[in-house]
Amino acid sequence: MQLSRRDMVRMGAGAALTAAGGRAMADGTVRIGIVGTGARGTGLLATLLQMPGVAVPAVCDIDAGRAANARALVQQSGRGDAEAYTRDEWDYKRLCTRGDLDAVLIATPWNWHATMAVEAMKSGKTAATEVPACLTVEECWDLVRTSEATGKSCMMLENVNYFENVLALQRMVEEGVYGEVLHAEAGYQHDCRFLAFTDDGKLTWRGEHLARLTGNLYPTHPLGPVAWWMGINRGDRITSLSSVSTRGVCLAEYAARKFGADHPLARRKYAVGDINTTIMQTARGRTITLYFTISTPRAYDLIFRLQGSKGIYEGGHDRTYIEGVSPTADTPEPFAPYLQRYAHPLWKKLETEAKRNGGHGGCDYIVLYEFVQAVREGRSTPQDVVDAATWSVVTPLSALSVAKGGARVAVPDFSKGAWRKPRPVP
Ligand SMILES: NC(=O)c1ccc[n+]([C@@H]2O[C@H](COP(=O)([O-])OP(=O)(O)OC[C@H]3O[C@@H](n4cnc5c(N)ncnc54)[C@H](O)[C@@H]3O)[C@@H](O)[C@H]2O)c1
Q1: CA of 41 to the centre of ligand 1 (A)
Q2: What is the pTM of this model?
Q3: Is the dihedral of CA 160, 163, 165, 166 positive or negative?
Q4: 361 CB within 6 A, ligand 1
Q5: pLDDT of 363-422, one tens digit each?
């Protein structure tokens, strides 16, 4: 796809005609291969195909029909064709070796993310992976060490960091509106029981994970924003966590209603507890409470309660109290006027395109835009491997803590001491 000079200037591509991976992108186009073209991969592909200066010459999925559907989307976009890689579950390796890709975007089930991202970086590509990036501590270190060894970045596409309110809060924190940030409470609370089972009485890949794993299996949506507000890996770091889970009953009850009380899925055990609660401490004396439940009947709620020395934001009620500004602590103010007043520059810049072209209120567009820009300019991605590892490691460490009755578990310093140096978030 040829870009106009205006597009190039707008995207900053003129200053960055050398690609990540050392290839020249004379026309400024970033070429991305997509691995995993299910629900999320297809959504991200559709968003990328609305973005100037992006081509998708390769797609990969073990389900040939899904890959063909993704290929058709590329063809319909007028941005050339895409080769489909569908031979088997390792065919992503062939995609990674292509010489015409700058980046590989991964939207497969959780257990594949780290392996595929490592392969992409080793093949000289910048990687992007869906959340969470890793399921084990070893995978976290693999990601960090491979990035160090190859000089390539991997961005975990934590889109919640780019929600409108999350970005506005980021600006308010940076401008000191809430004073010293002390505590945050957040959670991934979303009734996803329907995603655990197929209609013909089997477990999906998510269901398999819920049956086998315990602890907090989806920590990064709530933790990513909190980590940026607290400057985690940018002046502070998470040092330890303790985690407890309730017993798990909801999945079996759901399966009994869906398939009958005698069905094996109604009678089996699911390792995951219905509600997991994890408490974290940071080196600078902050605390975070993180909740996880995807099997209980309830409305979607990320909580997002942020307490600082000068005030509080309460996401559940979307209201705030700021000492010396708000009239009274007993009746916090609606947050809406602050959302306008503190609109983040990134949100202001991209709001129109984001709302038109991206899911989740536009943040899917912004997270992809940030990734594409980093690849185009040959710089590290705004969420890096240390962030990906720090936010994802909650899964294995919470499982460890749960197994030890809620014992405190140390969180590795994936930054190897670099966390002490404050640096702004993008
Ligand atoms: N950030 C968000 O808001 C968000 C939203 C939804 C899903 N997700 C994440 O996206 C990922 C995908 O979720 P989904 O809902 O699209 O699942 P999905 O099951 O619809 O899609 C996964 C796809 O990966 C393919 N796949 C599996 N193994 C493969 C392999 N070895 N090689 C190639 N393809 C393979 C499957 O055939 C399937 O098409 C998950 O990690 C999920 O957590 C993130």
Answers
A1: 6
A2: 0.94
A3: positive
A4: no
A5: 999 999 999 999 999 999 999 999 999 999 999 999 999 999 999 999 999 999 999 999
